[in-house]
Amino acid sequence: MCEEEACDPRRETSQGEWRVLGVPDGMLFYEVRCLIDGPGWSGPAADLGYRVVLGRSGGYLRRLNGRVTFADATSVLLTRPGDEMWVAHPLGCGDVYSCLEVPAEVLAGRPDADWWLDRAGGEGTADDRFELAHRLLLADARRGIDEFELAERLHGLLTSVIKRTPAGAMDRDDDVDRAAGRRHATLSDHRRLVNRTREVLASGGLGLSLTALAREVGSSPHHLSRVFHRVTGRSISTHRNQLRVRAVLDSLAEDGSSLRDVAARHHFADQAHLSRVLQRQLGHPPARLRRMLTPSSPG
């Protein structure tokens, strides 16, 4: 993730390629492909303000108010004024994300955002149905929708985001672990293991077996599965499938590859397997999703 700057409708800097998708009711909605390449920490970012950052592909390390997380295509981040964030790119450049900047006065009119105005931001995870809504909004914004509709849909997106990043969620996770007798050093070790696992999966490791993945991160399959679920609240299989679904959505929206090739590229058994997973996870078959997500399509 790049340190954000003011965005022109289309702009390339040494840090990233930016594209503004809309500025409805004082909110700023844009997408960025990061161009920073290097494993070292950079930052802190300029005043982050009230922002929603939604991962779409790739990954990077972020240190938000002292806590390190590997952010990937499933990640949701809310920030607020005063947050301090540093970023590092162990996978190199190229991670892509969407960002929504929200003025304080807009948040003040939302009863569900009181905690966000009064406390630090939070981190969460986007499920597949939320991600589809996010991608459809991106596709429609690129096609061009009026500001009234864009504002309404962005407020809907905010509602979903706030539900996924409840107040104090990270602190409560720590409290639960400490109540269970786990030492701070153990918690830190577990988070590092999960961050490394997410990094391996995001860097092309979706085709690895569980045993190979565990070997890559220096763990046993049983220990890795147990720790990953404890830290994230979901299984490695669930997380891996979420990454695969997002990668497929990218392919369907951005290239004309055959569905057979898309299935093979993203480690599905065959085209029928791909269709079953997308139908189950997103409620639509891949051919329909391609029509929905292609910017030149009427929708």
Automatic annotation (TrEMBL):
<dbReference type="InterPro" id="IPR009057">
    <property type="entry name" value="Homeodomain-like_sf"/>
</dbReference>
<feature type="domain" description="HTH araC/xylS-type">
    <location>
        <begin position="191"/>
        <end position="292"/>
    </location>
</feature>
<dbReference type="InterPro" id="IPR050204">
    <property type="entry name" value="AraC_XylS_family_regulators"/>
</dbReference>
<dbReference type="Pfam" id="PF12833">
    <property type="entry name" value="HTH_18"/>
</dbReference>
<dbReference type="InterPro" id="IPR018060">
    <property type="entry name" value="HTH_AraC"/>
</dbReference>
<keyword id="KW-0804">Transcription</keyword>
<keyword id="KW-0805">Transcription regulation</keyword>
<keyword id="KW-0238">DNA-binding</keyword>
<protein>
    <submittedName>
        <fullName>Helix-turn-helix domain-containing protein</fullName>
    </submittedName>
</protein>
